[in-house]
């Protein structure tokens, strides 16, 4: 009889195995049944079987293969009941029965083929442009990250029912559009790959600078995006922009510990304790950036952003930052992937390299940009530049507007402090406390 303490230990082990193996499991099943929704159901059935059996029998030596064998036995039973693919199923069923549950390694050799190819196909399917951005993010975290619906909902601060509906609709859309389970080739690859990279980047950004809620960061999302990026780099080692994205995420992640103070308050880049930056992640980021460069061709948007992050990482102190080089990189980025947000960041770099008046001149050209109308960082940057020029009344107005626009409580508190600071400077009084 299983000891009571063994049950929670087994459940924790199963949860860890699921996070690691679920994407591979679902990917292999999709190749067999050609339906993402059905593949996920079969994978969940295998998980339930593990929850029922492992607390008593113990975790198998090869838990991923055990789950795969269990799920594929159930897939074959289901397909037989539906009387589909009879000849293929009979052959496959005979091979599985010969291998048996006791020889999971043989089962993988018989049925799986190249599981890494299946995993790459699943990545491109989950991130297919036929889906909305929100659906791609939710489906990717569900299928490739192994996150539960409630975990995704909690991470993005939306109702669980909303995430569940997105996932259901996404599966239905893929089925109705008859999206092939394959890696695109030729000219289509670049467009489809950009969709995959965008999803991973969006997940990371939501974790790195949460758009809403009480916390500045959600580390679990950053970690998941970085894991997905590393997996993709392993699957597509000859794609420079994949390495560029990984480099960016590695270097950005290196600052995580220094980005918040003791009470969770934001700490701006120039005020961070750089001794708290993770040197291992920085080195990994530099290595990924070098791999992207070695593969040749002009740097893409993610590689350029990684180069900007690397410039910050090389500076031992804020004063050593090569802002002119960063401004030049932003100019390249604006030419490669023009957007008002890139221009806003370029304005910050220009202000640091050539003075706040130079930066403000560019920022003022962006104030009528419709896409930035609700973007709190536009008045934040403008307020900062006005304050540096001694125009405290105008700066305070900009910080007030930014505080009203942000949905993140930590950022709002910081902006309200900036408003108070401007008022004190304008009146010539010292701030309280």
Automatic annotation (TrEMBL):
Domain RNA polymerase sigma factor 70 region 4 type stretches: 124-174
Keywords noted in UniProt: Sigma factor, Transcription, Transcription regulation
Start and end residues of each DUF6596 domain: 192-293
Residue ranges constituting the RNA polymerase sigma-70 region domain according to the UniProt record: 25-84
Any single Pfam family the record assigns to this protein: Sigma70_r4_2
The organism's place on the tree of life at top rank: Bacteria
Family annotation (InterPro entries): DUF6596, RNA_pol_sigma-70_dom, RNA_pol_sigma70_r2, RNA_pol_sigma70_r4_t2, RNA_pol_sigma_r2, RNA_pol_sigma_r3/r4-like, WH-like_DNA-bd_sf
Family as reported in the entry's similarity comment: Belongs to the sigma-70 factor family. ECF subfamily.
PANTHER family attached to this UniProt entry: BLL0085 PROTEIN, BLL6612 PROTEIN-RELATED
Protein name, as recorded: RNA polymerase sigma factor
């Amino acid at each position: 009889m299983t000891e009571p303490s063994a049950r929670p230990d087994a459940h924790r082990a199963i949860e860890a195995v699921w996070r690691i193996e679920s994407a591979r499991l679902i990917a292999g099943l999709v190749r067999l049944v050609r339906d993402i929704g059905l593949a996920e159901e079969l994978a969940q059935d295998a998980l339930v079987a593990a929850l029922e059996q492992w607390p008593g029998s113990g975790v198998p030596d090869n838990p991923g293969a055990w789950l795969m064998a269990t799920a594929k036995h159930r897939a074959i039973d289901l397909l037989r009941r539906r009387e589909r693919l009879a000849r293929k199923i009979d052959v496959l069923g005979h091979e599985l029965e010969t291998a048996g549950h006791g020889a999971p390694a043989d089962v993988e050799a018989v049925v799986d083929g190249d599981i890494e190819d299946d995993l790459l196909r699943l990545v491109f399917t989950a991130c297919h442009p036929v889906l909305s951005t929100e659906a791609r993010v939710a489906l990717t975290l569900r299928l490739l990250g192994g996150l539960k619906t409630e975990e995704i909902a909690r991470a993005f601060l939306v109702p669980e029912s909303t995430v569940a509906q997105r996932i259901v609709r996404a599966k239905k859309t893929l089925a109705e559009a008859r999206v092939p389970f394959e890696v695109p080739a030729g000219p289509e690859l670049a467009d489809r790959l950009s969709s995959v990279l965008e999803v991973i980047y969006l997940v990371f950004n939501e974790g790195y600078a949460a758009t809403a809620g009480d916390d500045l960061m959600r580390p679990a999302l950053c970690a998941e995006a970085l894991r997905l990026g590393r997996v993709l780099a392993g699957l597509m080692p000859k794609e420079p922009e994949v390495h560029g994205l990984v480099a960016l995420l590695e270097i950005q992640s290196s600052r995580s510990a220094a980005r918040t103070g003791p009470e969770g308050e934001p700490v701006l880049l120039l005020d961070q304790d750089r001794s708290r930056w993770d040197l291992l992640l920085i080195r990994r980021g530099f290595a990924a950036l070098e791999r992207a460069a070695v593969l040749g061709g002009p740097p893409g948007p993610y590689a350029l952003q990684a180069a900007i992050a690397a410039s910050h990482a090389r500076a031992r102190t804020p004063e050593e930052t090569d802002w002119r080089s960063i401004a030049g990189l932003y100019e390249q980025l604006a030419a490669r992937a023009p957007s008002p947000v890139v221009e806003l960041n370029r304005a910050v770099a220009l202000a640091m390299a050539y003075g706040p008046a130079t930066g403000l001149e560019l920022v003022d050209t962006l104030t009528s940009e419709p896409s930035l109308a609700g973007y709190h960082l536009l008045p934040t940057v403008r307020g900062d530049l006005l304050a540096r020029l001694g125009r405290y009344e105008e700066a305070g107005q900009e910080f007030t507007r930014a505080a009203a626009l942000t949905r993140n409580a930590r950022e709002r508190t910081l902006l309200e402090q900036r408003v108070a600071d401007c008022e004190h400077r304008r009146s010539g009084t010292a701030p309280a406390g």
